[in-house]
Specification:
The structure holds two protein chains of two kinds.
Chain A (H helix, E strand, L loop, with lengths): L14 H16 L24 H29 L5 H11 L1 H23 L2 E8 L23 H11 L8 H6 L1 E5 L15 E7 L9 H20 L18 H25 L12 H26 L5 H35 L4 H4 L2 E5 L4 E5 L4 H35 L4 H37 L3 E5 L4 H4 L2 H25 E2 L2 E2 L13
Antiparallel strand pairs in A: 1-3, 1-6, 2-3, 4-5, 7-8
Helix pairs in contact in A: 2-3, 3-15, 4-15, 5-7, 8-9, 8-13, 9-13, 10-12
Chain B lengths: L4 H5 L12 H27 L4 E8 L7 E6 L12 H10 L3 E4 L12 H10 L5 E4 L2 H10 L3 H6 L3 E4 L2 E7 L2 E8 L3 H4 L5 H8 L6 E6 L16 E4 L8 E2 L3 E2 L1 E2 L3 E2 L6 E4 L5 E4 L17 E8 L2
Parallel strand pairs in B: 1-16, 2-3, 3-4, 4-5, 7-8, 8-9, 9-15
Antiparallel strand pairs in B: 2-16, 6-7, 10-11, 12-13, 14-15
Classes of the chains: A alpha+beta, B alpha/beta.
Chain lengths: 525, 301
């Protein structure tokens, strides 16, 4: 009886091998049916002769060694071939796979483990995040300041440079294009890809593949720096500007005390205007920690303006404090002369228009047509109902108003000049005025910080930070790419099956067959 | 003819068969694989841990006006990266920090060789202002070994704070830095300064940053103190970091500690940065726990 481990009839061409096989066959005849004793197949190759081993001999010995290692497999396949001679190659292959299930399983597990490790290492170099635009204008494809939104700015040179700088890499020292190409941005909504559909996506998937020259940091960190760089870019270019809240240190350089009073007043006015805009947007918004609202902050600015700054102005006026009294008086006198000229010009314009109105003949009203603009249609037309007098009256009013304002400023300047003449420029007054300025500035700084805190909280509440990035931690299955692992396993199985099928189809008994088709009769045992 | 399996298992003439059972062979093979994997893991980690990694954190707080970058160094234990820490200095310089914090244990108790720390401080102070708090090593050393240590340390351009606060202005951002020197055991001592100091703190509009060596204080002691962000160390990342679980052991919290690495938001909303540290103080190797340099960007958006 032939066992599974029976030797193939024709195994090798070499005489040595033939001899070894004969030996093994004899052994098999002695113990024909004992599987357990064949756990470890006997070594067919004798111990290598250490001396005179030429390259040809070595090759032959290596070949023999390979054959000896493959002998159990060849035995199994030959056994199947003999036992299922009348079956199709497909069935033989399937049966061979069943017989070889243990080594096949080990091979699959090993291949999947190696591939899994590779994918896990590879996944460390790639990171993905989802960006959501939360502000109102994003639904129309716009930036917060209503300019056109372009998601691909995420992969722009500015943003990539910002990211590299944040990593501590000089952007000029690396290939910036390679970095930009390693960033990909895609809308998350599939509709956005359709040509017929003008869907504006408000969420995007950002993927970064860490370039090889960036070492010592994770892809996840690189992605977070990319997101930060983009936020910096967006806030610098497309959102509201809050620089108005802060003073420029150089603003007060080489300024007279009275001019500083005007500057402080102007700053307070600007902050007040900023706050009033916010009050119009949200009257009730309250910051949780400080419990401040925009209205309460506007009141504080008002107090600062009408109490602290006015107190300072009065002090400077009363004491006539100045760094350079004569120079300042000269400057104010010059300003007054200029303002006097403006006043005279405005008054002359006012008088001319008044005279024109008086000279306008009533009979002209029905004849003269006046070129006019239709505001609703934004078109010109010749009006019969309007008269030239309407325009002249309006212009006369404007000129008179300007002249009055100028006269008021001239009066104030005159008052300052007279106070300056009267005042004694004491050192102590200068010190006090400087201290008052420092106090007012401190109050401004505190107030600016409070306003900024409330403002930021409001922006966070209204726009939810304009945009948010959500990075998702990958599960173990995602890291090792289980879908790819399954495909690899399937491909391996298919490959093994095909190899076996080819073996049964073309290689009979370990040798190429004569390719005589085996006719299998139907219902054959 | 061959013997049957039963016959094979029987001892021959009272002598036990030398062939081991398949279970025993499997066990032996398994044990060998486990030992090999362990040895390989330790060796690979020792090699990896010769260098440090840079970890970046982005923290949101509306208390800052512009982005503020802070670099935290913790638990250096006199370790050097390159000659006189030149690798570390080069990296920090490239990262352009606004502030540099030492979160304690930068040197070793009983060790009078201060050159590593002082040379590093001299170089880093050229990059950004350095603020430091005491770690257990510095505190013990200055209490029991060298009482002049603090003075010497500060002479190298380091502002060493101990249970005190300092206001720092970075651009338009005002930061109130508070440094706590006491650990969990010393915290409740009546005569101790930390408790009194914290009770004396008044509310502020500034961004309050706490610098302390001991993250475990955030279980209870440092809660509800108006802290926005805290910088800590001490845990050495829990020595051995297990996937999905985290650190295995820290001297402050024992096994499976809560504060070993990363940014942890505690109950009162404070964000606690825990550094895995840059050096080692004992023989247990760091596994899956590379030394790290922590970079924190404080942003309002």
């Amino acid at each position: 009886m032939k066992t599974e481990w029976a030797e193939p009839a024709e195994q090798t061409e070499s005489a040595e091998q033939q001899e070894q096989e004969n030996q093994r066959e004899q052994e098999n005849q002695q113990e024909p049916e004992h599987e357990t004793e064949r756990d470890e197949p006997s070594e067919p190759v004798e111990k290598a002769e250490e001396t005179d081993a030429g390259p040809e001999k070595k090759r032959v010995r290596f070949k023999e060694w390979i054959y000896s290692k493959l002998a159990p497999l060849t035995d199994i396949l030959n056994g199947i071939e003999d036992d299922f001679e009348d079956r199709s190659h497909f069935k033989k292959s399937l049966f061979a796979m069943f017989k070889l299930r243990v080594p096949i399983c080990i091979l699959l597990v090993a291949a999947m483990a190696v591939s899994g490790c590779y994918f896990a290492i590879e996944s460390r170099n790639t990171a993905t995040a989802e960006m959501s635009l939360n502000y109102e204008e994003s639904a129309n494809g716009l930036n917060p300041n209503s300019t056109r939104f372009n998601a691909y700015e995420l992969a722009s040179a500015d943003v990539a440079s910002g990211m590299l700088s944040a990593c501590g890499i000089d952007p000029d020292s690396v290939n910036l294009n390679a970095v930009m190409n390693s960033i990909s941005v895609r809308p998350t909504n599939a509709k956005a890809f359709s040509e017929d559909n003008f869907f504006i996506s408000t969420s995007y998937r950002i993927t970064i593949h860490k370039p090889s020259f960036i070492k010592g940091m994770r892809a996840q960190d690189l992605l977070s720096l990319l997101c930060k760089s983009y936020k910096d870019y967006l806030f610098a270019n497309y959102t509201e500007n809050r620089s108005i809240l802060y003073f420029d240190i150089d603003e007060f350089e080489a300024k007279e005390f009275m001019e500083i009073a005007d500057l402080l007043d102007l700053k307070a006015q600007q902050i007040d205007t900023y706050l009033n805009t916010r009050v119009k947007q949200s009257k009730t918004f309250t910051e949780k920690q400080s419990e401040e609202t925009f209205k309460s902050l506007a009141q504080k600015v008002d107090d600062l303006r009408h109490y602290d700054i006015e107190k300072y102005r009065v002090f400077v006026l009363q004491t006539g404090t100045s760094y350079d009294k004569a120079g300042y008086i000269r400057a104010l006198s010059y300003i007054n002369r200029m303002k006097g000229l403006s006043y005279n010009k405005d008054m002359a314009a006012y008088t001319v228009r008044n005279d024109g109105i008086k000279m306008y003949d009533e009979s002209m009203i029905s004849v003269v047509m006046i070129p006019s603009i239709d505001d609703s249609k934004n078109t010109y037309y010749m009006s019969k109902t309007k008269t030239g007098m309407d325009y002249m009256a309006s212009q006369a009013d404007n000129h008179l108003l300007t002249a009055q304002e100028t006269a008021k400023e001239i009066a104030v300047n005159k008052d300052i000049i007279s106070k300056m003449y009267a005042g004694v420029n004491k050192e102590s007054d200068i010190r006090k005025a400087n201290k008052m300025i420092a106090d007012i500035r401190q109050k401004f700084d505190d107030l600016s910080r409070q306003i900024e805190t409330v403002d930021k909280a409001y922006i966070k509440y209204r726009t939810k930070d304009y945009l948010t990035f959500k990075t998702t931690e990958q599960s173990l299955l995602q890291i090792v790419r289980w879908d790819m692992l399954l495909m690899i396993a399937a491909a391996l199985l298919l490959g093994i099956f095909l190899t076996l099928w080819l073996r049964f189809r073309y290689f009979h008994g370990g040798k190429r067959s004569e390719r005589i088709p085996v006719v299998t009769l139907p219902f054959q045992g | 003819m061959g013997k049957t399996k039963a016959a094979e298992k029987e001892p021959d003439n009272g002598v036990r068969s030398k062939k081991k059972s398949p279970v025993g062979r499997l066990l032996r093979a398994f044990l060998m694989i486990v030992v090999a994997v362990l040895v390989l893991t330790v060796v690979v980690n020792i090699v990896i841990n010769r260098d440090f990694t840079v970890t970046f954190y982005q923290i949101d707080t509306i208390k800052v006006t512009d982005s503020v970058r802070i670099i935290e160094l913790a638990d250096l234990h006199n370790k050097e990266y390159g000659n006189k820490n030149e690798d570390l200095i080069r990296k920090i310089k490239a990262l352009q920090p606004d502030l540099i914090f030492y979160a304690g244990d930068m040197m070793n108790y009983h060790d009078y060789n201060y050159s590593v720390l002082f040379d590093l401080s001299d170089k880093l102070s050229e990059i950004a202002p350095i603020y430091a708090c005491y770690g257990n090593n510095e505190l013990d050393h200055s209490l029991f070994e060298d009482k002049t240590f603090a003075e010497k340390f500060q002479s190298h351009n380091v502002r060493l704070l101990s249970n005190e606060a300092e206001e720092i202005e970075v651009g338009n951002t005002l930061i109130q830095l508070i440094a706590i020197s006491d650990d969990l055991k010393q915290f409740d001592i009546e005569t101790n300064n930390a408790k009194k100091f914290l009770e004396s703190l008044e509310p502020t509009n500034a961004c309050r940053i706490c610098l302390t060596h001991y993250p475990e204080l955030f279980h209870e002691k440092l809660l509800d103190r108006g802290i926005d962000v805290a910088f800590t160390g001490h845990a050495h990342g829990g020595l051995i970091r297990l996937p999905k679980i985290g650190g295995l052991y820290s001297t402050g919290e024992g096994f499976f500690p809560d504060f070993t690495a990363g940014v942890i938001q505690v109950k009162d909303g404070a964000q606690v940065v825990v550094s895995r540290g840059l050096g080692d103080s004992h023989w247990i190797p760091r596994i899956n726990n590379q030394p790290e340099l922590v970079v924190v960007d404080l942003n309002w958006y």
